[in-house]
Amino acid sequence: MSMRTNASGWPAGQPSSSFAAPQGADAQRAQPETLDETLSSTTPDLPKKAKTLQPIGTLGWSLGIGAGFGALALRSKGAGWGMAALGSGASKGALVGAGIGAALLGLDKLTGGQVKKQLDYVSLDRRHQILFVLKHPTNPWVAGTGLQVAKNAQATQDSLYGRWDPLDGPQDAFRHTYAAGLFALRSMRDHGETPATAHALAIEAGEAHEADGQDNNDDFSRGMDTANNLTGTLVLGDGRALPGEAADADGFITEQALRDRVLRAMFAGHLQVVDRMGATPTPRPTNAGDLPGVAAPTPVMQPAH
């Protein structure tokens, strides 16, 4: 059964998303926590405990991972799973791991700590997104879909509004809403997921993104992004095109038409932004004045009851 939307692009009968503004001390911008002292990418202005890879730790990890991998994959063919075979594979893997570790140390030293910076970025700054992918081993496509959706959502934002992207402004609101809807649409269209599963995956991916961005976002930013992620899935509905909307051969709404649904919802006030012009950040719904130079798409005609 298709989910019907009203002229603004909002699913009929669904309330708009909202979030409570933080109060008291929570209203202040989040201060760096202890974890930030070890980060090397999103907080480059903070002092770091170690700017380069440490030889003992790096070689230890390399040897251990190499030995574990080698015991499983590098043992002699037909040798079985005895201790001798596992030990032989482990020794080979340890040598490989030591070589990789030594190479990483050398590159890190030559680049002034850039290798460590990138490893920190993956292991610390993006750990929740990595865990999201690992939680869905039967859906390995979520990793590639997430990366492509982020890239495409940013490109769509830039094509509409240019590169200007103020903190928590309407451009940010559009990007999050469109990205959530696009992730869910591709989950249904390209991978056969049900609307409920596709929505859940999109929300979970958004939550992982927000969790990894917590050292840069305060409570207002996180609340805004979470609300707009939900709005994106509600605007998409079951992914089917309504009369008057462009559709593919299978009846799914096109990505261009999804973009227009998001813009209609934005102009109707269903997206959230945070006004930071005053002394205290103030969450508010979007309005027609948030995107100067962009006309609201023509409302979609509704089928007769």
Q: Quickly give the structural class.
A: mainly alpha
What string gives the helices and strands in order?
Answer: HHHHHHHHHEE
Strand order of the largest sheet: 1-2
Shape: elongated
**Fraction in helix:** 40-55%
Number of strands: 2
Q: Which terms would index this structure?
A:
mainly alpha; 2 domains; two-stranded antiparallel ribbon; 305 residues; 9 helices; elongated; disordered C terminus
Topology:
Elements lengths: L54 H19 L9 H28 L3 H12 L1 H8 L6 H21 L8 H22 L3 H18 L6 H18 L18 H13 L4 E4 L6 E4 L20
Describe this protein's structure:
The structure is a single chain. The protein has 305 residues and is mainly alpha-helical. It folds into two domains: 38-124, no CATH class; 127-290, no CATH class. It has helices spanning 55-73, 83-110, 114-125, 127-134, 141-161, 170-191, 195-212, 219-236, 255-267, and strands at residues 272-275, 282-285. A two-stranded antiparallel ribbon has the order 1-2. Helix 1 runs antiparallel to helix 2, helix 4 (127-134) packs antiparallel against helix 7 and helix 6 (170-191) packs antiparallel against helix 9 (255-267). The chain starts with 54 loop residues before the first helix and ends in a 20-residue tail after the last strand. The model is unreliable at 1-5, 7-48 and 301-305 (pLDDT under 50).
